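Protein modeling request. Please complete all fields; requests missing the sequence field cannot be processed.
Requester role: graduate student
Desired output: 3D structure, C-alpha coordinate encoding
Chains: 1
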Amino acid sequence: MEGYNRDRKSIRETTGAPKGARLVFGIIMIIVYVGVGLLFIFNVFDIINLTVSIIIGVLLIIYGIWRAYRLYKGMN
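Delivered output (76 residues):
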Protein backbone atom coordinates (compact mmCIF):
# COMPACT_ATOMS: atom_id res chain seq x y z
CA MET A 1 0.00 0.00 0.00
CA GLU A 2 2.91 2.36 0.58
CA GLY A 3 3.89 2.19 -3.07
CA TYR A 4 0.39 3.29 -3.99
CA ASN A 5 0.61 6.34 -1.72
CA ARG A 6 4.06 7.23 -3.03
CA ASP A 7 2.79 7.02 -6.63
CA ARG A 8 -0.23 9.19 -5.84
CA LYS A 9 2.02 11.80 -4.22
CA SER A 10 4.37 11.96 -7.17
CA ILE A 11 1.43 12.28 -9.56
CA ARG A 12 -0.05 15.07 -7.44
CA GLU A 13 3.26 16.95 -7.41
CA THR A 14 3.78 16.72 -11.17
CA THR A 15 0.29 17.80 -12.27
CA GLY A 16 -1.35 21.17 -11.95
CA ALA A 17 0.28 24.50 -11.25
CA PRO A 18 3.92 24.78 -10.20
CA LYS A 19 4.55 24.81 -6.46
CA GLY A 20 5.55 28.49 -6.39
CA ALA A 21 2.41 29.54 -8.24
CA ARG A 22 0.22 27.58 -5.82
CA LEU A 23 2.00 29.23 -2.89
CA VAL A 24 1.51 32.73 -4.30
CA PHE A 25 -2.13 32.03 -5.17
CA GLY A 26 -2.73 30.63 -1.67
CA ILE A 27 -1.24 33.70 -0.02
CA ILE A 28 -3.29 36.04 -2.21
CA MET A 29 -6.49 34.15 -1.39
CA ILE A 30 -5.73 34.32 2.34
CA ILE A 31 -5.30 38.10 2.07
CA VAL A 32 -8.55 38.36 0.09
CA TYR A 33 -10.60 36.31 2.60
CA VAL A 34 -9.28 38.17 5.64
CA GLY A 35 -9.57 41.55 3.89
CA VAL A 36 -13.16 41.01 2.75
CA GLY A 37 -13.98 39.67 6.19
CA LEU A 38 -12.70 42.88 7.75
CA LEU A 39 -14.70 44.92 5.26
CA PHE A 40 -17.84 43.03 6.31
CA ILE A 41 -17.07 43.56 10.01
CA PHE A 42 -16.62 47.31 9.48
CA ASN A 43 -19.88 47.29 7.43
CA VAL A 44 -18.31 48.83 4.34
CA PHE A 45 -20.85 47.03 2.13
CA ASP A 46 -23.69 48.74 4.04
CA ILE A 47 -25.75 45.62 4.68
CA ILE A 48 -29.02 46.44 6.41
CA ASN A 49 -28.49 44.05 9.32
CA LEU A 50 -25.17 44.72 11.14
CA THR A 51 -25.32 41.35 12.93
CA VAL A 52 -25.39 39.43 9.64
CA SER A 53 -22.50 41.54 8.34
CA ILE A 54 -20.39 40.75 11.42
CA ILE A 55 -21.20 37.02 11.24
CA ILE A 56 -20.20 36.85 7.57
CA GLY A 57 -17.02 38.80 8.31
CA VAL A 58 -16.03 36.51 11.17
CA LEU A 59 -16.68 33.41 9.05
CA LEU A 60 -14.54 34.77 6.21
CA ILE A 61 -11.69 35.58 8.58
CA ILE A 62 -11.89 32.12 10.18
CA TYR A 63 -11.82 30.53 6.72
CA GLY A 64 -8.81 32.67 5.76
CA ILE A 65 -6.99 31.51 8.90
CA TRP A 66 -7.92 27.89 8.10
CA ARG A 67 -6.51 28.27 4.57
CA ALA A 68 -3.31 29.79 6.01
CA TYR A 69 -2.96 26.82 8.35
CA ARG A 70 -3.50 24.34 5.50
CA LEU A 71 -1.00 26.22 3.33
CA TYR A 72 1.57 26.18 6.12
CA LYS A 73 1.05 22.48 6.81
CA GLY A 74 1.31 21.73 3.09
CA MET A 75 4.73 23.40 2.92
CA ASN A 76 6.23 21.11 5.59
